[in-house]
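Session log. Operator J.P. requested a structure for one protein chain; no other inputs attached. Running the standard single-chain path with token output.
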Amino acid sequence: MSEERRRRHQERVGTPGANPESRKKMLIWGGIVVLFALAWVAGWEYRNHRYDGFAKCLASKQAKMYGLYWCPHCAEQKAMFGKAFQYVPYVECAIKDSHELAPACAAAGVKLFPSWQFGSTPPREGVFPLEELSDKTGCSLP
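Structure written below.
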């Protein structure tokens, strides 16, 4: 291609990114995409960690959950906390390849799952709403 022909072709098509208006539009759209990504990450973080303080407070009040890894109601109770469940004092009562309960669960007298023990009171069976756990322990919900 001759030099004159190249120059005419560039004038007709334009150089990508050379136009200041197109650069400005690309920067605006890039900024919008980054803002949406940051909002999504912040929302995900909030949803998964909003009960951290509540779960830590339950631990400080000696609330304890007894459960079984295969129990659907125990999974339901754990899901209410999201990732914050890692801070809840939890006792696994199932022993793999056995029909026996773990010694800590047998000593506490737990027979139905999930069960919650608040301080030195006997364990109470059932899936408790977070509001009820808050009432029993005095821990405030976010």
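Operator note: The chain has two domains: 3-49, 52-137.
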